[in-house]
TrEMBL record:
UniProt GO molecular function: ATP binding; ATP hydrolysis activity; ATPase-coupled transmembrane transporter activity
Keyword Thylakoid annotated: no
Domain ABC transporter: 5-237
Locations listed in the record: Cell membrane
Key words, A-Z: ATP-binding, Cell membrane, Membrane, Nucleotide-binding, Translocase, Transport
Pfam families in the cross-refs: ABC_tran
Name of the protein in its database record: ABC transporter related protein
PROSITE patterns: ABC_TRANSPORTER_2
Membrane topology classification: Peripheral membrane protein
SUPFAM superfamilies to which the protein is assigned, alphabetical: P-loop containing nucleoside triphosphate hydrolases (SSF52540)
Superkingdom of source: Bacteria
Amino acid sequence: MNKKIEVKNLHFSYSKEEEILKGINLQLDNRSTAIIGQNGAGKTTFVKLLKGLLKPSEGDVLIEGINTKEATVANLSSKIGLVFQNPNDQIFKNKVIDEVMFGALNIGQSREESYKNSMDALKTVGLEHLEHSNPYDLSLSERKLISIASIVSMNTDIIIFDEPTIAQDYEGREKIKNIILKLREKNKLVITIIHDMDFVAECFERVVVFAQGKMLMDGTTRDVFSREEELKKAYLEAPHITKFCKKLGFSETFLTVREFVEYKKSIS
């Protein structure tokens, strides 16, 4: 698989007293990837380094061959998009369509192209009927979907979601899951930093575990969630269905309820 992101001996410190990231080496390809770890593990700092919002203290981050040390955030915007955890930190226009078109126009799309891409993105999140609404009149869940649409409309090869399921009810969560699956089908690299292990199991092919500024594990989702002792070292738990099936005595690692039901059908 093509390497979309290469991270080489990455170190980062906000101050001389404390090093946040301590020699991360990682290659990210097209596989959807969840970066998990306790608060303070370095996940958010890592994502800011990928986006170019921070520069490495030591080492290199290459986004599709571009070294972030030599690029501005604007240069990287056509390559990598970031959906903020809180949509209120991202939204600033008074009309939904203007908000969704803003990023696309900023990276050089024509008005015609950005409008088409923005309407397609709004259809993807199921909010095309709100094209002329004021985002501030909408629910937090809807604003989250609009912030996702504004990044999807830019058509970047890499999209990062920061805690995508926060403030989402079941319907909103399912919408975001379907958006991620559609982006995967389009060969986009989808990355998330997240605490929702059930959502990770449902949507992501690869899991990277951070602990105390280092990379503790990197593997397929099934592989990582089968390693109970190592998860404990990072103060993490497997998805609910995975833990439940282990308690029932199954040796297999099940990631979703549907997967477990299909297994039971196959052996009955």
